[in-house]
Amino acid sequence: MIITRPRDWERIKQNLASIGAKSVFIMGCGQCATVAHTGGEKEVLQAKAALEADGHAVTGWAVGEVTCHLGGTKLESRKHFGDIEDADAVLVLACGAGVQTVADAVSKPVFPGLESVFLGNVIRHGVFEERCQMCGDCVLDLTAGICPVTTCPKGLLNGPCGGMWDGMCEVLQDRECTHVRIQRRLADQGRAATSGVLPPKDFSTKLKPGSVNLRNKKGGDRP
């Protein structure tokens, strides 16, 4: 899931002031932002109260099922067409993909209320960790399901740095070194023998912007 954090409120106020917005519609997200406690119903109502305290009129709000789903967001926008039309701007409490989807679905100026920080694993309720950078050149088959590039603070692909001491990370000193964890798991699985030094990442597999069209039987998707 995409992990988000609240955007600086002063910047949001500046965004609204830049177009002279007096009225705002708020759009949240029923998936990632709800789980991260940044864009669910509770957070949307908190934003509503904050906007009203700053003198803005809130014409309405909605928490779509999946804000980055264009079809669903268009449908949600149609349900609230009048409220959105009455607003000078739309504040979106969702990831950057959700903000762009709302911007495609409505004609009003759209501003982000959150910052997208990383693709996260849900460790337990309220605890998230970044474990994948979506690089398009995965080595998890060789590293026992632990991504060295993401979970090592220095992004080292092959082995620990010189600062590793007694198996612990030099940067995050309360954590084991990623490469120690990899080697131990490989050994536990009887896979201690590695394929040697991993080659540098092939960043050509992560061309931007990515696109996948499952309806296109002829292929031609961008990585």
Describe this structure as you would to a colleague.
Helix 4 (70-79) packs across helix 6 (96-105). It is built from 8 helices and 7 strands, in the order E-H-E-H-H-E-H-H-E-H-E-E-E-H-H. The protein has 223 residues and is an alpha/beta fold. It has a 4-stranded parallel beta sheet, with helices on both faces. The radius of gyration is 22 Å and the shape is elongated. The protein has 2 domains: 2-118, Diphthamide synthesis DPH1/DPH2 domain 3 (Rossmann fold); 136-194, no CATH class. The longest helix has 13 residues, at 41-53. Helix 6 links the parallel strand 4 and strand 5. The mean pLDDT is 90. It has helices at residues 9-18, 32-35, 41-53, 70-79, 81-86, 96-105, 148-151, 178-188, and strands at 2-6, 23-29, 57-64, 89-92, 110-112, 114-124, 127-130.
